[in-house]
Amino acid sequence: MDIYGWDAAESALQGYVSAVAEALGVPPESTCAMTGRPASAYIALEERLPNFPDRDLALLWEDTQGWAAAIETHSGEDVIVVAYLGGEVVPPAREVVAFLRDLLADRHPGQLEPPNFDRCPDLVERLARHGHRGPSRSMVSGSPS
Q1: Is the pTM above the cut of 0.70?
Q2: Collapsing DSSP states into helix, strand and coil, what is residue 102?
């Protein structure tokens, strides 16, 4: 029996991260999602930012900061966040795709400071609303994958 709702939260987060990854054209094995405090997700990307061509790029999600783009360091230290999407804590996948597309085009989207969203009492419902709903297509390049 799941009296604390962790199963629902984990399922909703996995579904949401899967939907975003699929929209980005990223395989499931390049993602990681964890419930807890804070709930978080990581999506490894193959693309590189124009100003950091030698650094791996990732999208990070946290339940109090939403999505952020970060570059990996060479020393194994924490990643360096280069931009936060802002807006809302659980945006539709298409907004995350647009954020990444603008970053890759060096258009400086989002914001530099973390948004610090309040804890969301309906987080599971928001995640489920934007979660995986079946086969889709990659929207980063604008064409089906």
Answers
A1: yes
A2: helix
Contacts by 135-143, CB closer than 8 A, 24 or more apart: 135/22, 136/19, 136/22, 136/23, 137/23, 138/22, 138/23, 138/24, 138/25, 139/23, 139/24, 139/25, 139/93, 139/94, 139/97, 140/23, 140/24, 140/25, 140/47, 140/97, 140/100, 140/101, 140/104, 141/25
Could you list the beta-strand ranges (E) of the chain. Answer: 31-34, 40-45, 57-62, 66-71, 80-84
Distance, in Å, from the CA atom of 32 to the CA atom of 14, rounded to the nearest integer, reads 8
Token digits for 40? 């978080």
Taking the C-alpha atoms of residue 68 and residue 62, their distance in angstroms, rounded to an integer, is 9
pLDDT 10s digit of each residue in the chain, 145 long?
Answer: 343 455 678 888 999 999 999 999 999 889 998 877 788 999 999 999 999 999 999 999 999 999 999 999 877 778 999 999 999 999 999 999 999 999 999 999 999 999 988 888 889 899 999 887 544 444 444 433 3
Cα separation, 123 vs 21, whole angstroms: 19
